[in-house]
């Protein structure tokens, strides 16, 4: 398993492996992932549904009624795309 010394290294690798998404989508999904972990209050595996809900919540907080438009502009059209941002084939 690869170890990263910084978040930037991880994001650079993800962008390189799967360039179909706007670079901002990677940082955004990571922000949503951190939000989910913070809200749980415990360290554990999260489900795809929990991550998708976290993305929805953070998008609504940051972009309001334009959330869907922003995510689609970044290439995120579905929950499958949310998963593909981080769990892309490489």
Number of helices: 5
The secondary structure category is mainly alpha
Question: What would the principal axes of the Cα set say about the shape?
Answer: globular
What's the rounded overall pLDDT mean? 86
**Main pleated sheet:** none
The arrangement of helices and strands along the chain is: HHHHH
The proportion of residues in beta strands is under 5%
Q: Name the poorly predicted regions.
A: none
- Helix % is 55-70%
Number of strands: 0
Rg calc: 13 Å
Distance between the termini: 13 Å
Walk me through the structure:
This protein starts with 6 loop residues before the first helix and ends with a helix. 67% of the residues lie in helices and 0% in strands. With 90 residues, it is mostly helical. α2 packs across α3 (48-63) and α3 crosses α4. The mean pLDDT is 86. The chain has five helices and no strands. The protein has a domain at 43-84. It has helices at 7-17, 23-40, 48-63, 67-73, 79-86.
Break the fold down into its secondary structure elements and pairings.
Blueprint (H helix, E strand, L loop, with lengths): L6 H11 L5 H18 L7 H16 L3 H7 L5 H8 L4
Keywords:
90 residues, single chain
In short:
The chain has 90 residues and is mostly helical. The protein has 5 helices and no strands.
């Amino acid at each position: 398993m690869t170890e990263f010394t910084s978040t930037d290294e991880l994001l650079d690798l993800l962008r390189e492996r799967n360039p179909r998404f706007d670079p901002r989508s990677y940082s955004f999904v990571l922000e949503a992932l951190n939000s989910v972990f913070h809200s749980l209050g415990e360290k554990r595996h999260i489900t795809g549904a929990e991550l998708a809900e976290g993305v929805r919540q953070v998008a609504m907080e940051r972009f309001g009624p334009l959330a869907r438009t922003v995510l689609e502009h970044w290439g995120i059209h579905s929950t499958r795309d949310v998963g593909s941002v981080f769990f892309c084939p490489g």
